[in-house]
Amino acid sequence: MPKKEGSILIVDDNKDLLLALKLYLNPHFEKIVTEHNPNRIKEHLSKHAFDIVLLDMNFKTGINNGNEGLFWMNEIKQADSEMAVVFITGYSDVELAVRTIKKGAADFIEKSWDERKILSTLLSVYQLQKSKKSITQLKKKQQHLKECINDQQDVFMGNSEAIQQITKVVQKVAPTDVNVLILGENGTGKEVMARHIHHLSDRRDEIFVAVDLGAIHENLFESELFGHKKGAFTDAKEDRTGRFELASGGTLFLDEIGNLSLAAQAKLLAALQNREITPVGGTHPIKVDIRLICATNMPLEKMVAEGSFREDLLYRINTISVELPSLRNRKEDIPGLAHFFLNKQSDKYKKGKMSFTADAIELMQDQAWPGNIRELQHIIEKAVILADDTTIDKDDLFLSVNNNKALDENHFNLIDHEKLLIEKAIRNCKGNMSKAAKKLGINRSTLYDKIKKYDL
User: Fold this and answer.
1) What is the C-alpha separation between 37 and 420, in angstroms, rounded?
2) Percentage helix, strand, coil, to 5, in the chain?
3) Looking at the DSSP assignment, which residues form a beta bridge with residue 231?
4) Which of 40, 165, 263, 425 is the one with CA 20 to 30 A from 226?
5) Counting Cβ atoms within 10 Å, is residue 118 exposed (0-12), middle (13-18) or buried (19+)?
6) Domains contained in the chain, number
7) Is residue 405 pLDDT above 50, yes or no?
8) Would the pLDDT of 163 be above 90?
């Protein structure tokens, strides 16, 4: 016998009809709730998640204009705009029922009690609702994929011994569904590694959803991760799908997890333990199937000892941990990374085939790189934008030749660096400010502000 699916709320003032419909439909649907008082419709909708409301068109004796049914359908639609409403109508009201379909009803059944017609109508409406929900969810995932396009194969991890050891671990862990915690300084490529793990997993064809927890305000944590229902709070103008639900079937990457407050940690832990979430303003939990990857640059074990991070949450997210080394501790990877970024940026800015001089590579390997791989990438992008030809020399990188000092000595002066970039852009564009601004990736008014700021 096929598994029963779907839930129906039946509202009619005829209690005998309610009982008959419940007995008849019970073998075919998972949940059947009956109600003779339409004033309790919203109460039922707040307690249970229904797929269909089967609604009488007329509740008062002698009145058959259908206005009551339309009123209650509008009330239902206000509570849930996607709810399917099927009207129960007398034979003489068929024409009226057809008109109500134009006003938003899904279908109607007659009180003449044609069992096959009743069942086929409700099953058809349920399957249509199920398809609509699947399509809506798919569209949301596709939109998210468009926003997060990233060619998983277009990565360079490095060839250093440290990276090779990490790669061996990742290749063993990725095909499983175990939770992974990625540690490392800012800019070491934690999200790139998370995406790499996803690409190597059995979920590679499903969605990868990245969330920067450090950028989410405490008050919006639940709404962002678990979603919310329309009207849950002042700015909740429509239903919102949370990141957990969006990532269901795929991988959820929670970056900067060490930034969460203890209250947010408790809510996250509950969701991970139960594998279900409840949207803000919702009453029904939603099951989720995610592969969890977290990342942080913070010392979580020390935070546990200090009481600022939950030990049980750390155990939950830390089945396998991977620590990415800083760029200054794997300088042998710099030439490969530099060429990888050079090829990407030269393609992006249509500069043709470009290369580094040996002096440029040597200078990059002499840097301390406090911003790690992210800083290297940005330096190369700027060099490509401002390059006069297809060869990048050490002077094109705007890097200090004496940059082997400790990180706390402020060896990298960002103001001087920006000033030099602006001067070179203006010089290369022969004073054409519009071209210089475009080359720098800023608008002309911003360029004039910086010229004034640096007295150029």
Assistant:
1) 76
2) 50, 15, 35
3) none
4) 40
5) buried
6) 3
7) no
8) yes
Between CA 251 and CA 195 the distance in angstroms is: 9
pLDDT (average), residues 81-109: 78
Same domain, 54 and 175: no
Determine the straight-line distance between the first and last CA of the chain, rounded to whole angstroms: 81
Q: Which domain holds residue 255?
A: 161-325
The reply to whether 398 and 309 lie within a common domain is no
Token reading at 383: 């060099």
pLDDT in tens, 176-203: 999 999 999 999 999 999 999 999 999 9
CATH of residue 311's domain is 3.40.50.300
Distance CA 330, CA 334 (A): 8
Helix (H, G, I), strand (E, B) or coil at 340: helix
- Fill in the amino acid letter for 233: F
- Structure tokens given for 366: 């002499």
**Arithmetic mean of pLDDT, 211-240:** 85
Q: What are phi and psi for residue 309, nearest 5 degrees?
A: -140, 135
Q: Are residues 165 and 279 in the same domain?
A: yes
C-alpha to C-alpha distance for 72 and 44, rounded to whole angstroms = 13
pLDDT (mean) for 405-433: 64
- Per-residue pLDDT band for 410 (boundaries 50, 70, 90) equals very low
| DSSP assignments along 389-427, one per residue | SSEE-GGGGT--SS--S-GGG----HHHHHHHHHHHHHH
